[in-house]
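Q: Start with the shorter request: fold the first protein.
A: Done. Sequence, then structure:
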Amino acid sequence: MENAYKRKKEPELNKQLILDAATEIGAAGDWHDVTFQAIADRTGLSKGGIIHHFKNKDELLDELMRRSLAGLTEWMKVFNEEIGSGDKAYGYLKFVIDKGNDQSYQQLMRLVIKALLASPQYRKWWEDWYVENIMPPDGTEPNIHGLIMLLVADGIWYSEGFGFSVVNDETKQRILKYLKR
């Protein structure tokens, strides 16, 4: 069978194509559904072309997780600058509520949640990311109000990531208004 794909000398584009396909496959199915064959089928690249960029599945999944966390970091940074809040807990809650309808965010969250369930290594990466980006900068625990906001944000985040959220947009906005100081 002839592969219709003609190799292009655009390695970064091909790498991004592979990562995008892996994200879509992982978010739609199971973390273990991300295989070189599934990516090849989706992209038209050969498995050898994929191996050229990622020597094995672990290397690919590590890169997906690194990019996912970097993307979340950028989103959080931009979002906190927009709202001008020094309160990370409130910023995180507002971020989760406001990004909830963004398709790329939802896809990324589904992938990250599945990765966290599949790997102790990724849970450690997430913990480190969370401490650095969400918790108070001085290393202390947030005050009780901040802790409640973090727990609410995480609850919304996880329920939407698993696809069983029962909180509509209007209710989320009411929660945000209620918890805002």
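Q: Next, the second protein, separately.
A: Sequence, then structure:
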Amino acid sequence: MSGLNILNEKSLEIDPQQWCSDIETFIRTKFIESKKDGILVTVSGGLDSSVTAALTTRAVGKDKVTALMLPERFGNPEANLYGKLIIKQLDIKSKKIYINPILRSLKIADLLLTFLGGREFWRNRIEKVKQKKGDEVYKGYLKMLRGERVETFQKYTSKISGRQRARLLYAYKYAEDNNLLLVGATHKTERSVGLFVKCGIDDCADIMPLKNIYRSQIFQIGQHIGIPTEILDRTPNPDMVPGVTDKYVGYLELPVQQVDLILLGLENKMTPKEIAEQVTLREKKVLEIQEIVRLTETQRNPSLAPIMTVKTTKNE
């Protein structure tokens, strides 16, 4: 048994005031060290990017922060609405760049994906079609990680990944054109289970202040610093996957709070059986999450290379 004996909602409680202070100090220090003129934060209207933008503004002041929005022209209007909401609350400069031109040039400008992505209206209809075909998202995700071919799932995954990489290209170009430090908003939960795009906007940046924090803890920070309720109440929405308005429920069939507890248990060397008993789940489900963490290791560690050693001989 590990040092962690109990898994419940209190297991992930933090001191938000202290954590905010530590994160803001980190941002301020790295900004000073960078010798840049300001900071660029990509804003999507979700909780993670909103908290990142708010902490960055608190760390260096609103005059040093620019929010970059990278929507698709026919994308989810909610992302645009909530992105503008946090920008207005923080009173920071903003820039909006539509990414459609590069999507067309890469031949990944799928209008259906763009228009339906993340929209609540279409979720039930699309889910019924997928279930009829035996093509639920969580099954396709696990099969793909295991090396099985899932044609439809992989086709859409490729296009969705391309969109996030296109956003990264735009973000770094804008940051370098204006001598800005790029700040990203990825976090520990999505990275642990591979729900991010390797070399995408949710993977690469100059600094990632929330990278070692679970999403349940980001929510606590958001409450503490006054993120608007409309954003706090949003589901973890990828905004680009048809029929998926909560990526943890869609890809893992679990709410993010349970995912966080499982990950915390695994991090503390608890057995799957112990975790399952304490979070009231079947052990099989915990084993699946454990397998996903293992199978997505290469996503978290790109550009793997062998460790080489030089053998030396003593001079006679």
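Q: Describe the second briefly.
A: The two ends are 54 Å apart (CA to CA). The CA atoms of residues 127 and 133 lie 10 Å apart.
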